């Protein structure tokens, strides 16, 4: 694995390394500017608006101009901040966002000014682990920003963000195990090469779905954008940040979005390798074309991010944490076991008809047993709920319990007051709220 | 050149850019003093006084962090096993199943003791 695979990495001349670094840096900044504009346009269309279309062709320069404008705005540093940490937090966030991208492959080996080099900054035997590690360090930026602001909302937002990110990082990490198991490597270029006949998104679909869910939680995007739930926490961890410090957090968020999309492309959608109808053309996987396939795949993920934001309402925090800990984690561990057992059986046990029959029968019996157990639990829960409701209904309802007026619980009957009863009006009036307006753009 | 050197170069560029942006705003933007503007933002009301160092917060966050460490270490064990899976084969599978069962016992215990409930 190492010798031939890593022969092309770590041998670039210094000018080529510099060139790649500058190109990757510029690409990430441009992708961020493009994604912000693209998100605003797409969400606008989904809400029957037009979106930014004034600055430059189609409004393409909008995000760049917003950046300039932020630089010319007053930088407000509240008096209660812990100054050193307050300054360092956005730097940590932005730096980690940039360097996590270093191991993403976006093309095959090409010749640049006569030097054969892979279109990837660097690669080593543990590069996916490296991405996870850098993502973990990036969380420091968030939690330190919240802590150092000396304000209630940022502190709560920072704590929430970090709890959310570490919870979903577990599900994310577990979804990679099946990929490593198939690829036999943790290096991104080797994983891309291992997907030559078929994508891992197809053969490891559950892993892919778990990763796709976890990456939305990991990047704090809607419908999992609880750290900046405006109704509860104002702006979350960056409430007290303004001007370019705020812009850096914004930049980091969008670069992280690009990075997780690129990682999803690398691990599950075959990286830069051309998809089926294109792969019929022989030159599809050579030269500079693969960058285009890679970019299209990444853009598909980014579009899904935007689509989710335009479609789904935000989850409640306890539901969100429950989903991460009680659904994603056990499902991914179970799936890892299924993949591992299947692989050992495929390699070691020769299947004949009688064994297949016995195995099939055992699986059916197991399934029946599990479904019976699940049904039994559901029945028991329903019974308990019915009993509880009956008890509650039987209990007399005190509308002034504890000295405060309280509404009746389901199943309870409110006693009609004399005044209301005589006028004959209903006690509970249905109120129809207008649907809450979708946010236009994050603050 | 080492395979890790390019990361350092990218890191220096990103760090320089971030440092530049953070410093720049102090020079380009206007500065107008206003006492209310420098107070912590709490939607216009008088801000809650904050104890030094952030004060106390819910134990749930600490618990989540501890559980994270348990599972993160599980992941760290799973990765090398997954990479070397074809060499370890059945032996590795049995060992790993035993390990996962041990972690699942902890997981079931935490679940049972309502450690995974948020409210």
Helix content of chain B: 55-70%
Give the overall shape of chain A, derived from the CA principal axes: globular
Biggest sheet of chain B, in brief?
Answer: none
What is the residue-averaged pLDDT of chain A?
A: 83
- Largest pleated sheet of chain A: 2 strands, antiparallel
Oligomer status: heterodimer
How many strand units of chain A?
A: 2
Q: Class by helix and strand content of chain B?
A: mainly alpha
Following the backbone from N to C, one meets helices and strands of chain A in this order, namely: HHHHEEHHHHHHHHHHHH
Strand count of chain B: 0
Largest interface: A-B, 89 and 67 residues
Indicate the percent of residues in helices of chain A. 55-70%
Provide the residue-averaged pLDDT of chain B.
84
Description:
The complex is a heterodimer of chains A (443) and B (119). Chain A starts with a helix and ends in a 20-residue tail after the last helix. A two-stranded antiparallel ribbon of chain A has the order 1-2. Chain A has 2 domains: 16-275 and 286-345, no CATH class; 354-381. Chain A has 443 residues and is mostly helical. Chain A has 16 helices and 2 strands. Chain B is mostly helical. Chain B has a domain at 55-112. The mean pLDDT of chain B is 84. At the A-B interface, helix 2, helix 4, helix 6, helix 11 and helix 14 of A face helix 1, helix 2 and helix 3 of B.
Summarize this entry quickly:
The complex is a heterodimer of chains A (443) and B (119). Chain A has 16 helices and two strands. Chain A is mostly helical.
């Amino acid at each position: 694995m190492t010798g031939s695979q890593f022969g092309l990495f770590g041998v670039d001349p210094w000018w080529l390394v510099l060139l790649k670094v500058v190109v990757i840096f510029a690409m990430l900044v441009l992708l961020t500017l493009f994604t912000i504009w693209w998100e605003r346009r797409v969400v606008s269309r989904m809400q029957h608006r037009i979106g930014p279309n004034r600055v430059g062709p189609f409004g393409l320069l909008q995000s760049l101009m917003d950046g300039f404008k932020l630089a010319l705005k007053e930088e407000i540093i509240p008096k209660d901040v812990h100054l050193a940490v307050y300054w360092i937090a956005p730097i940590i966030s932005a730096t980690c966002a940039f360097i996590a991208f270093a191991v993403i492959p976006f093309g095959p080996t090409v010749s640049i000014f006569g030097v054969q080099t892979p279109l990837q900054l660097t690669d080593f035997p543990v590069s996916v682990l490296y991405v996870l590690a850098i993502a973990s360090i990036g969380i420091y930026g968030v939690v330190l920003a919240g802590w150092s602001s000396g304000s209630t909302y940022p502190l709560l937002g920072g704590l929430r963000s970090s709890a959310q990110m570490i919870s979903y990082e577990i599900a994310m990490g577990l979804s990679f195990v099946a990929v490593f198991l198939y690829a036999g490597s943790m290096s991104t270029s080797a994983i891309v090469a291992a997907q030559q006949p078929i994508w891992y998104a197809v053969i490891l679909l559950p892993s892919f779905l778990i990763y796709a869910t976890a990456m939305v939680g990991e990047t704090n995007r809607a419908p999992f954008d609880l750290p900046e739930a405006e109704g509860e926490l104002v702006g979350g961890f960056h409430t007290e940040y303004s001007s370019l410090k705020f812009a850096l957090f914004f930049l980091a968020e969008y670069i992280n979005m690009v990075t997780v999309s690129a990682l999803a492309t690398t691990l599950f959608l075959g990286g830069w390798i051309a998809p089926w109808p294109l792969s019929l053309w022989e030159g599809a996987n050579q030269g500079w074309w693969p960058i285009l396939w890679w970019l299209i795949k990444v853009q598909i993920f980014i579009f899904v991010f935007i689509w989710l934001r335009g479609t789904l309402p935000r989850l409640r925090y306890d539901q969100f944490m429950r989903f991460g800990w009680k659904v994603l984690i056990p499902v991914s561990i179970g799936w890892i076991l299924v993949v591992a057992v299947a692989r050992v059986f495929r390699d070691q046990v020769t299947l004949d008809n009688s064994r297949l029959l016995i195995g099939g029968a055992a699986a059916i019996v197991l399934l029946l047993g599990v479904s019976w157990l699940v049904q039994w639990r559901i029945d028991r829960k329903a019974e308990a709920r019915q009993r509880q409701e009956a008890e509650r209904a039987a209990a007399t309802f005190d509308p002034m319990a504890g000295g405060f007026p309280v509404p009746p619980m389901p199943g309870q009957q409110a006693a009609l007051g004399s005044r209301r009863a005589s006028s004959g009006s209903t006690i509970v009036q249905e109120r129809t709220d207008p649907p809450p307006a979708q946010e236009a753009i994050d603050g | 050149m080492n395979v890790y050197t390019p990361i350092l170069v990218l890191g220096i560029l990103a760090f320089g850019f971030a440092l530049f942006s953070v410093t720049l705003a102090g020079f380009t933007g206007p500065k107008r003093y206003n006492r209310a503007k420098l107070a912590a933002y709490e939607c216009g009301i008088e801000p809650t006084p904050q104890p030094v160092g952030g004060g106390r917060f819910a134990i749930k966050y600490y618990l989540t962090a501890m559980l994270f460490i348990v599972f993160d270490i599980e992941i760290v064990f799973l990765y090398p096993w997954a990479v070397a899976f074809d060499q370890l084969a059945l032996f590795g599978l049995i060992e790993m199943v035993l390990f996962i069962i041990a972690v699942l016992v902890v997981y079931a215990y935490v679940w049972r003791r309502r450690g995974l409930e948020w409210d």
